[in-house]
Automatic annotation (TrEMBL):
GO terms for biological process: tyrosine biosynthetic process. Residues 19-279 form the Prephenate/arogenate dehydrogenase domain. The keyword Oxidoreductase applies. Pfam families: PDH_N, TYRAAT1_C. PROSITE patterns: PDH_ADH (PS51176). One of its GO terms (molecular function) is prephenate dehydrogenase (NAD+) activity. The keyword Coiled coil applies. This is Arogenate dehydrogenase 1, chloroplastic-like.
Amino acid sequence: MASSSSSSSSSSSSSPTCLRIGIIGFGTFVQFLARTMLKQGHVVVATSRSDHSDLSSRMGVKFYRSVGDMFSESDRIDVVLLSMSILSMADVVRSLPFDRFGRSGDLPLFVDVLSVKEYPRDLLLQVLPEEADVLCTHPMFGPESGREGWKGLTLVYERVRIRNQDICQKYLQIFETEDCRMVELLCEEHDKMAAKSQFITHTIGRVLSEMDIKSTPMDTKGFQTLLQLRDNTTKDSYDLYRGLYQHNRFAKEELEKLELAIRAVREKLLDVPNGKEHS
């Protein structure tokens, strides 16, 4: 069941006020999140397959060539933020050097920001050490929608396995401080809703792209909305769209419903009663 949440009690007063956050996968979206984390005073370090060292330096983020290097320093990392493509997550997580992450019982909180939720939850529970805490999140906004601030924008999350409530709450406070709408939701419920909304939105946008629709001198407002939908969805990589389908078990059903709906509309168009064509 969905619920709005804004606070929970801390269980450890010894943890620092600011977090040291290690980001794995330093793409555009997580760079956007990192700027607000830095603004709030958190320490951010990062690693990625691509070399983002110049950009990281300008942002005030220390960049490492590998995950192993990022964890080789003595400073503890409180949160590991996983921000890679849905399709590459399994390979990345299984390659993590868990022996460098700290002593058993002193592991960081693992947080993902993927657009599907059951898949990363199950993967992290399967691969991570049992002592590692897991928080699954989906910020329902990005650099465009959050350009003027995060107030009123939604963060969906599930506390999958949390022992250190203090670290978990301090991470969630990053979003609470920006006045986000905090929605605590089971991963299964998230994926059901996302298949009916996000996946269908992307599907319609991709269909419009395949149709190669173009602006005309007589565009209606409705058609302009369709063009905008196409442009917004095709800005994202096809790997993201493929991941929304392959790793959300409810997406196949919604695609089948869409195909059936198109057939039903076509049949209604062809089923014109005799003598009523011009009525």
